[in-house]
Design a protein that fits this description.
The chain has helices spanning 2-43, 49-66, 71-86, 102-120, 126-136, 162-177, 216-219, 225-241, 262-271, 320-330, 388-403, 425-436, and strands at residues 207-209, 211-212, 246-248, 254-257, 276-285, 288-297, 300-305, 345-348, 351-357, 373-379, 406-412, 417-419. It is of the alpha/beta class.
Length: 437
């Protein structure tokens, strides 16, 4: 009898321990799957041909496991994906004296994307799950579009678009549906492969793609303003001496209201007889502040204001009364940046250029007309050190591949580069073999 009284409490206690262990184990499993799906952000940093080859297969394995998760595990996987992709967004809070909010913002991103994945996994039907996950790339919470699952295929042998991801999901559905004939499902992956590559267009100009590394801690301090302007002028003079025809400088390379700096404008107009100049800077007009790109060419100046603003960075995408409250409490009463009414385009030596400032270069609106050339300027100093520049580069590569566009990207805080459509992996492999032989 006494043994029974000992037995039942012991069993109950054991069940609680097992249940708790099981829950923790499941959460760890979700974290591991989130890492697999997100691996391309981290492996591509090494720029290694074999890691690039392996990356999409790790992603496929991650999705394969995800499709069989219950809705709670979908939530946890989305939660960790949100953190792995966007933990760095919170780093900008350091420069508003809000560092104490960094953990909260990181958890906020986890929660938002956890809820999105919860919806994707709400129903057990695999077709519905595939459709919902394909739709995630086209759903922009708070107008932020950087969770793009198609971009997980930017490196490797598969096509980074709806076809590529769609046939990978078709493979997963077939794998779980064919029972004894699962091996047949592998053939569906053939239709997800990249079959061609676009030959990159390059501007027939000698272009100086400037790169700066000004720490965000000092970038907007008045005592460093003149030094930064001198650095810009030195870069322009050096580009002229080296025979360049066009120089592209990063976002806010000139930390001033350029349209109000009459002497500086006149100086740059004079220099533009020797070299075309595109530089980032601020503009002030009719009591509004604009984030702008300024083009100086042949003694003339044109201004192109940013059209798509960064959510919670340059605008608060909330109703006005909430927006005003947030700006007052957290941003010392500052107003939102004013946006342009339309996208900006201009011509350089007869070639049409689409203008993009930082976040804009990762938006589909920029590529709506399949432009041959985009000139983009960014300031990644807000988020350094982090994986933000690499994710930005991968997203730009995604759009470059999808629209056969060449992007000239000048950056502060990370690498400036020309980003062209994705090459076929097999061709890169052959080129590497030839280079070693």
């Amino acid at each position: 009898m006494s043994q029974k009284y000992c037995y039942y409490p012991y069993t109950s206690f054991t069940k609680k321990i097992i249940s708790r262990y099981s829950t923790i184990n499941e959460i760890i499993k979700c974290f591991f799957i989130a890492i697999l799906i997100s691996n391309f952000i981290f492996l591509s940093i090494f720029d290694n041909l074999w890691l690039n080859f392996i990356s999409p297969f790790l992603t496929i394995f991650g999705f394969l496991k995800l499709f069989k998760f219950n809705k709670i595990k979908f939530f946890y996987t989305g939660f960790f994906i949100g953190i792995l992709w966007f933990y760095w967004v919170s780093f900008s809070l350091r420069f508003y004296d809000l560092s104490y909010l960094i953990p909260i913002e990181i958890l906020f991103f986890g929660l938002i994307y956890g809820l999105i994945f919860l919806v994707c996994g709400w129903f057990k039907n695999l077709y519905f799950r595939a459709f919902m996950l394909l739709s995630v790339s086209y759903f922009y919470p708070f107008n932020f579009n950087w969770l793009n699952l198609e971009a997980t295929l930017v490196i490797g042998i598969f096509e980074p678009n709806l076809r590529g991801l769609g046939f990978i999901f078709a493979f997963i559905i077939a794998y779980y549906s064919l029972n004894k004939f699962k091996f047949i499902s592998i053939f569906l992956l053939i239709f997800a492969l990249q079959f061609k590559q676009n030959v990159p267009n390059l501007l027939p100009l000698k272009i100086y793609l400037a790169n700066t590394n000004i720490n965000q801690e000092i970038k907007w301090k008045n005592e460093y303003r003149n030094d930064q302007i001198k650095q810009v002028l030195n870069l322009i003079n050096k580009a002229i001496m080296d025979g360049y025809e066009f120089i592209i400088l990063p976002e806010n390379a000139i930390v001033s209201y350029v349209n109000l700096e009459l002497n500086l404008m006149q100086y740059l107009k004079e220099k533009s007889h020797n070299i075309g100049i595109l530089t980032g800077g601020l503009a002030y007009e009719n009591d509004f502040i604009y984030n702008s790109a300024f083009l100086f060419k042949d003694g003339d100046m044109k201004r192109f204001d940013k059209f798509i603003l960064v959510p919670f960075g340059e605008e608060i995408p909330l109703p006005t009364f909430i927006k005003n409250f947030v700006n007052k409490i957290f941003f010392k009463g500052a107003s939102d940046i004013k946006s342009a009414k339309n996208l900006s385009t201009y011509e350089i030596n007869g070639f049409k250029i689409t203008n993009a400032i930082c976040y804009e270069v990762t938006r589909p609106e920029i590529y709506a007309n399949n432009p041959d050339f985009v000139i983009a300027i960014s300031n990644n100093g807000w988020f350094m050190p982090s994986t933000e520049p690499n994710l930005q580069r991968l997203l730009i590569k995604y759009y470059a591949t999808k629209h056969a566009t060449t992007i000239y990207h000048s950056v502060n805080g990370s690498k400036s580069e020309i980003i062209t459509p994705k090459k076929m992996w097999i061709k890169e492999f052959i080129m590497q073999i030839k280079s070693k032989s």
